[in-house]
Amino acid sequence: MSEDAQFRPLPKTSVSSKGCYLLEAFNPPVVNVDSAAILVMTDLSQVPSATINADASLDEANHSMLVRGVRLLFVVGETHNIIGVITTVDALGEKPVLVAQARQTKRSELRVADVMVPVEKMDALDIEEVKKASVGNIVASLKADGRVHAIVVGQGKDEKQYLLGIFSASQIARQLGVQLHGHEMARTFAEIEAVIAGV
């Protein structure tokens, strides 16, 4: 049987002259500091994880982040296990310059593996703790660690640990109604705290 005989084209329908409307895209709910923390977590069972290989160039990592609209990529190994993370700061900050100088090489020759935070230096939040926490707890955790991201892990039925979600200070700020002007971590937290203080 030829492909032409196997598949038939679908019938057409007309676009309504009375109006064809756009559906509202999913928008994360507006929250306050007492809201459940889970409401500001990006659920990685619903949203694909942004990943990259360790041997990718820093330019490839930066391009991947720009295209996906994220500021963090999970670095994955051959079995799709996490071997590290790389952020825009890791790719574009002073870290690549220092590594290149130490190795007497060009920045353009560096790979993700050269500047990523390896898995053994990463820590995470446990999903069971997150389920009991509020948005304010997450903001406090990010600030205490001096980070703008926190990953959330949990154990599967197979006893393996899985990456379940990620918190982003900028996402939390948006859901709190904070208008961010730039990406500096200190300013992000200052603006979030201003909202918290006004609650």
TrEMBL record:
Q: Per UniProt, which keywords does this protein have?
A: CBS domain
InterPro entries xrefs? CBS_dom, CBS_dom_sf
Q: Which Pfam families does UniProt cross-reference here?
A: CBS
From which domain of life does this come? Bacteria
The CBS domain, residue ranges = 41-105
According to UniProt, the name of this protein is CBS
